[in-house]
Amino acid sequence: MTTTLYTADSRGYNDLGWLRSHHTFSFGHYFDPDRVHFGALRVFNDDTVLGGRGFGTHPHDNMEIISIPLEGTLMHRDSMGHEQGLRPGDVQVMSAGTGLTHSEFNGSADADLKFLQIWVIPKLRNVEPRYDEVHLADTDGAGAFHTVVGPQGSGYPLFIHQDAYVSIARLEAGASTRYTLHDEKNGTFTFVIEGAASVSGNALARRDAIGITDVASIDVIVSVPTTVITIEVPML
Q1: Alpha carbon of 214 to those of 87, 126, 145: distances in Å?
Q2: Which residues make up the CATH 2.60.120.10 domain(s) of the chain?
Q3: Domain 11-135 has what CATH class?
Q4: Pairing between strand 146-151 and 158-160?
Q5: Domain 146-233 is of which CATH architecture?
Q6: What is the distance between the alpha carbons of residues 228 and 191, in angstroms, rounded to a whole number?
Q7: What is the side-by-side strand order in the sheet with 197-199?
Q8: What are residue 10's phi and psi, to 5 degrees?
Q9: Could you report the per-residue pLDDT of 157-191, keeping only the tens digit for each?
């Protein structure tokens, strides 16, 4: 087993006043040659957007983009004609492919919006842009990992153009669960959204993460109520 720890306080940070963003990997003005990506996982941003503010219309291409609201309402508008309000429990995917534009705004005038922005490098370039979303039921991820995103044709609620998987577990105090990799050549990136966890023997606090390779599975044990997200990706 090979591990890389990404503690919350070691992440890159950018404060624009209206946006406070923590970057696990190099992004924007933050660059660390040792933290450019974890396999096909290129971006993992933990964003807070002030009320009434947001990202204006901007372009993307050839990237699989996943957004997960944690607090508040994420208003989305794109060049494919989608206009949505996303809330906690929703998961959104966009395949940027040949190119698209979109904007993201805080749906509240005064309350903060908090969401995770995740980019995965695709295995197919220049695909037709697409959008999809799903709402997780309260029982999804309760007590064990629930896989939300997988490769096209895998049968999971959402798909992306990569042999990658996004799974969420919501665990009660004293619980444990195991994540078994779909391909042992892949790696897992596990991030503690809330709470604290032991991930294959490594202690993680809130907003800590760990990358693990050379294993067939990982074990997660918690002593307090905890929510974790695990992203399994090919190691490019």
Answers
A1: 35, 31, 20
A2: 11-135, 146-233
A3: mainly beta
A4: parallel
A5: Sandwich (2.60)
A6: 6
A7: 176-180, 217-221, 197-199, 202-204
A8: -100, 0
A9: 999 999 999 999 999 999 999 999 999 999 999 99
